[in-house]
């Protein structure tokens, strides 16, 4: 199994080895944690495992990018003051690409990332629930 490293400040996860500096919060403090991501079959997966879909064409920037749509769970996750999705990280070929952060307000735990049109490979998405930890899903770019 690949090693997982977690930023002690913001919770960002890196695959394989810890970077010198966190790409999200710029901290220099990572710890190895093989249990950083919940197994996809764990109870509660319906509200936590990200659902990732891709589109080879973009409606916002036509001809320039592909879209990666992410919603948290096949069943909507609560977004309440005491239980919410704090962030969603997107990786392309296991390299960090983007973070969407959420507050427990009047929004849903969903986001879209516009990826350059010539980008290929695997998309990995990790979401963080303040009560139930990190959950992951993968797909391939069209």
Q: Percentage of helical residues?
A: under 10%
pLDDT < 50 stretches: none
Order of helices and strands: EEEHEEEEEEE
Strand percentage, roughly? Answer: 35-45%
Tally the structural domains.
2
CATH architecture of the largest domain: Sandwich
Question: How would you concisely characterize the structure shown here?
Answer:
By secondary structure, this protein is mostly beta strands. About 5% of the residues lie in helices and about 45% in strands. The protein is built from one helix and ten strands, in the order βββαβββββββ.
Question: Would you give an account of this structure?
Answer:
With 142 residues, this protein is mainly beta. It has 2 domains: 1-36, Single Sheet (Rubrerythrin, domain 2); 40-140, SOR catalytic domain (Immunoglobulin-like, Sandwich). It is 3% helix and 44% strand. The chain has 1 helix and 10 strands; from the N terminus they run E-E-E-H-E-E-E-E-E-E-E. It has one helix at 45-48, and strands spanning 4-7, 13-15, 30-32, 50-55, 65-72, 85-92, 95-101, 110-116, 122-129, 133-140. A 4-stranded antiparallel beta sheet has the order 7-6-9-10, with no helix packed on it. The mean pLDDT is 94.
Main features:
142 residues; mainly beta; Rubrerythrin, domain 2; Immunoglobulin-like; 2 domains; four-stranded antiparallel sheet; three-stranded antiparallel sheet; 1 helix; 44% strand; globular
Topology:
Elements: E1 4-7, E2 13-15, E3 30-32, H1 45-48, E4 50-55, E5 65-72, E6 85-92, E7 95-101, E8 110-116, E9 122-129, E10 133-140
Antiparallel strand pairs: 1-2, 1-3, 4-5, 5-8, 6-7, 6-9, 9-10
């Amino acid at each position: 199994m690949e090693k997982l490293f977690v930023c002690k400040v913001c919770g960002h996860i890196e695959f394989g080895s810890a970077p010198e500096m966190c790409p999200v919060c710029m901290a220099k403090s990572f710890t190895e944690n093989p249990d950083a991501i919940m197994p996809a079959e764990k109870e509660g997966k319906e509200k936590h495992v990200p659902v990732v879909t891709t589109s080879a064409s973009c409606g916002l920037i036509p001809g320039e990018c592909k879209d990666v749509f992410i919603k948290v769970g096949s069943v909507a996750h609560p977004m309440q003051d005491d239980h919410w999705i704090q962030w969603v990280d997107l990786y392309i070929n296991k390299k960090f690409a983007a973070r969407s952060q959420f507050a427990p307000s009047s929004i849903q735990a969903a986001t879209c990332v516009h990826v350059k049109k010539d980008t290929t490979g695997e998309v990995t998405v990790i979401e963080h629930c303040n009560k139930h930890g990190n959950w992951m899903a993968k797909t391939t770019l069209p």
